[in-house]
TrEMBL record:
Native organism: Macrostomum lignano
Chain coiled-coil ranges: none
PANTHER family on file: AMILORIDE-SENSITIVE SODIUM CHANNEL-RELATED, PICKPOCKET PROTEIN 19
InterPro entries on file: ENaC
Subcellular location(s) per record: Membrane
Cellular component GO terms held in the UniProt record: plasma membrane
Record protein name field: Amiloride-sensitive sodium channel
Annotated family: Belongs to the amiloride-sensitive sodium channel (TC 1.A.6) family.
Transmembrane segments: 37-55, 574-596
């Protein structure tokens, strides 16, 4: 035993003579017992202090604290996607009188849209019969309010099951002028997105061949002159019924009123004429975003974007999702009877997870999905879908599915806040905020209205067709129509005052007027003096969307305590308390090696002696 102790002591003294750990040096080389005890106690105290210090460093590292940094205009800015939606889903022009035979003895009215209602849907007479009939002793006001909810459901059925693309806004008629970075753009740079709230929306995608920065080193800019199609100057058609005695039903009570249809589709939101412009990343579904700007008709609106690229760190107090982000395929647009459904993959945000959960509630209870939320299924799987053979007379199964939807949709909506909290951790760690800032003024000046009419609007009717062959588009409802949408819309504006119209019409042959042979087109091209400037101004909006700078801000979070800093502090702590470094560590390993060798040598010597 004493031999082994002498071996350990000898090995320790040998290492102590060369080690840089000074406490060990004094413990083993001091000659007096008091000095050895002093250095031993001091070394133990230093070892305890070092252990506490190291524990604090480990705790600091495991907390993963985060620091943030905002760098102004430090990264390249990318022009976002821009989605334009009209506040009025249905075209106000098509809901107005489009063919009044002014010299016809019977004063017949013809409605392009209402022909579709009658032929394909039977004027909805067989839909929700019990709810569309006036009840005994029910006041007109009470009946009118109740009927609005029913007629809104009828329009939703038509949107889901039929094809409303011809009835809603069209990019060809909406876009009067378009320039991106001073270069021409057209409706070919836009793609259709259908939603139950706005019907037809159009997303602008910058041409990748065009520059992403504006001229003169400025940020990219999109300039548009838009036709808002909010013409509702014509009165509701009470006068075609004697003494205002309107029959029961949606067609006569609601749909024959040009303003009522859009009010129903707007879910009784405040009536407004203009556009909602969503500004979003290409990977985001437009209606899932909260960054949008409302643009009123008869205004010129400048929208400045100040993008900031956010790169956040996921931490216990606020978790987020790192790339790659989960995706979902939403339906962008569809055609008649659930044909040609077109989808696109989008990155799932928190709101998309909420929508997915709400749709799951509906499907688990009704076996179908809601059209009032973004959906990723064929339209035939929507609760409000009716196959073409049931458009005129719906089956009980269709009506039951609709009732089930209405009940469980309200339940799903009440769960919105709770679901948003549940999926808050699904927010993206990396995303871009556009931070739009808008400034509007009255527009256009009266002096510019005639130029807008002659140079931007009249050329739309000269082709005589709504879609050119190179557009790759076709009519979906009005395939046999002899009139184009542009002709309908502009004719309403070109009619002007009665006196002006009477003097102008005297130039045309009576038979041409009666048969409509290029009659309206000639009026549009020649009746500049008859156009009401105040009415035309209400149909226009100028929009300029630009990046405030070609460079974007960057907000970045990073761990305040990186592993390299932790390693440095650990080394400093060991050096401060114990004088240990990387070299000292190898000395300790050397001490163990020497000790093992000496012990083994002594064991061999003992065996030899025995």
């Amino acid at each position: 035993m004493r031999a082994r102790l002498r071996t350990v002591t000898g090995a320790a003294q040998e290492v102590a003579g060369i080690t840089r750990t000074h406490g060990l040096l004094h413990i083993f080389l001091s000659r007096g017992s008091a000095r050895r005890l002093f250095w031993l106690l001091l070394f133990v105290a230093a070892l305890i202090g070092c252990s506490v210090h190291l524990a604090k460093l480990v705790q600091k590292f495991t907390e993963r604290s985060v620091e943030s940094q905002l760098k102004l205009r430090s990264e390249r800015a990318q022009f976002p996607d821009v989605t334009i939606c009209n506040f009025k889903p249905a075209s106000a022009s098509l809901l107005s009188i489009i063919n009044f035979l002014e010299f016809h003895s019977k004063n017949e009215f013809k409605f392009e849209v209402f022909d579709y209602f009658e032929i394909f849907w039977g004027n909805f007479d067989n839909w929700f019969k019990e709810d569309t009939q006036k009840r005994p002793q029910e006041s007109d006001e009470s009946y009118d309010n109740r009927l609005e909810k029913v007629c809104k459901k009828v329009l939703d059925v038509m949107w889901v099951s039929g094809d409303t693309r011809d009835i809603s806004q069209l990019d060809e008629t909406m876009l009067l002028s378009c320039r991106y970075n001073s270069e021409p753009c057209s409706h070919k740079n836009f793609s259709l997105v259908q939603t139950s709230r706005f019907w037809n929306c159009y997303t602008f995608h910058p041409d990748p061949r065009q520059s992403s920065s504006g001229p003169g080193g400025r940020g990219a800019e999109l300039d548009m002159v838009l036709f808002t199609d909010s013409n509702e100057k014509y009165p509701d058609l009470y006068e075609i019924y004697p003494n205002g005695a309107l029959p029961d039903g949606c067609i006569t009570r609601k749909f024959l009123r040009s303003k009522a249809v859009n009010r129903l589709l707007q879910s009784n939101e405040p009536q407004s004429a203009g556009l909602r412009i969503f500004i979003h990343e290409e990977k985001s579904f437009p209606m899932s975003e909260t960054e949008f700007v409302d643009v009123a008709s008869a205004t010129s609106t400048s929208i400045k974007l100040r993008p900031v690229h956010n790169r956040l760190m996921s931490k216990p107090s606020r978790r987020c999702s790192e790339p790659p982000i989960e995706t979902i395929n939403y339906v962008r647009h569809f055609s008649n009877a659930s044909l040609n459904v077109v989808t696109k993959a989008y990155s799932k945000s928190v709101s998309d997870f909420v929508v997915e959960a709400q749709q799951s509630i509906l499907h688990s209870n009704c076996g179908c999905y809601s059209h009032l939320l973004p959906f990723s299924v064929n339209t035939s799987d929507l609760c409000y879908f009716a196959p073409p053979q049931e458009w005129i007379t719906p089956s009980d199964a269709v009506l039951k599915r609709i009732d089930c939807h209405d009940h469980w949709f309200e339940h799903a909506q009440r769960q919105s806040e709770e679901l948003a909290k549940e999926f808050q951790h699904r927010m993206w760690c990396q995303f871009t905020q556009q931070r739009p800032w808008q400034q509007s003024r009255r527009w256009p000046p009266f002096s510019a209205i005639q130029e807008i009419w002659e140079n931007l609007m009249v050329p739309q009717v000269r082709h005589g067709v709504e879609f050119l062959p190179e557009d790759g588009k076709e009519h979906h409802i009005f395939r046999n129509s002899t009139k184009t949408r542009q002709e309908i819309q502009l004719y309403l504006l070109a009619r002007g005052s009665d006196y002006c119209r009477f003097n102008f019409l005297r130039k045309f042959n009576f038979i041409d007027r009666l048969l409509g042979k290029d009659y309206k087109k000639k009026i549009i091209e020649s009746a500049t003096s008859c156009v009401s400037r105040s009415e035309l101004a209400k149909e226009l909006a100028a929009v300029s969307i630009s990046l405030q700078s070609p460079a974007a801000d960057a907000y970045e979070e990073k761990y305040k305590y990186h592993w390299t800093e932790a390693l440095s502090e650990i080394g400093g702590t060991l050096g401060l308390w114990l004088g240990i470094s990387v070299v000292s560590t190898f000395e300790l390993l050397e001490f163990i090696y020497i000790l093992v060798q000496k012990c083994r040598r002594n064991d061999d010597d003992s065996d030899t002696e025995e």
